[in-house]
Amino acid sequence: MPTLVTRPEPQASGWAEALAAQGVAAQPLPLIAIEGPPHPEAVARLWHTLAHQRLLMFVSPASAEWFFRLRPQPLRDGSPAPAWPAQTLAAAPGPGTAQAVLALGAAAGLTPDRMVSPPEDSTQFDSEALWPLLAPLDWPDQRVSIVSGGDTTGARGRTWLTAQWQRAGAHVEAVQAYQRGPGMWASAQQALARQALAAPQAHVWLFSSSQAIDHLVAHHLPALGHASPRPDWQRMRALCTHPRIAEHAAAQGFGEVRQCAPTVAAVVQARRSAP
User: Which domains does the chain have, with CATH numbers?
Assistant: First the structure.
């Protein structure tokens, strides 16, 4: 029973390979495409003001990838590229994002002791799990930037987490480091989707984003054309990495919705225990 990994590339292929290595049949079928931000100068400004930031919150591996990709280059006069200040913290909602931030930020001087993230044995990885680690810090008049994605209309920050920081006295800004869209399926991916629609109970859709479900319904399935099998939602199976995503899948009509933590080990366990 194949697991369809719907994360953006290259995460989708990476997860599919990791699941296959654990004996779980998996294939990448990305529902979200990642591109650079519409206004990269906003990221450059943030780099030049890092010394005035108490913390940068990275919402995903993609936010880390594009933030460090858009790091300003050394100037012709010999001025170096901006480095990560010793007093500035980094935060991530889970270990996957934290690992990406540290790996990409090492060249800029970011060290593991500056990272704040829920431990790998946490039951959930999200803003709610992160905030207890941040709440004890001194926040009045401190500046916080949420490095996030978005679309052509602007950045999508973390509303709940922003509210917590603001109540604690911090000044919070969302900076768009990348933009998300549905992208386009290649012919092989369209064929895989048609197979999943033709045999809905023999495939499991692995969702790590509610937006991925929206793109599936509003963009990818209609793009398959009228000759493709119609979705039989009641027979379709979803495995979701957060309660809100599971609620969204159920609201769309997925007949079987299960939930697990957003780790390869948790997905493997959930797939092995599935009936």
Answer: 3-32+184-272 (3.40.50.10090), 35-180 (3.40.50.10090)
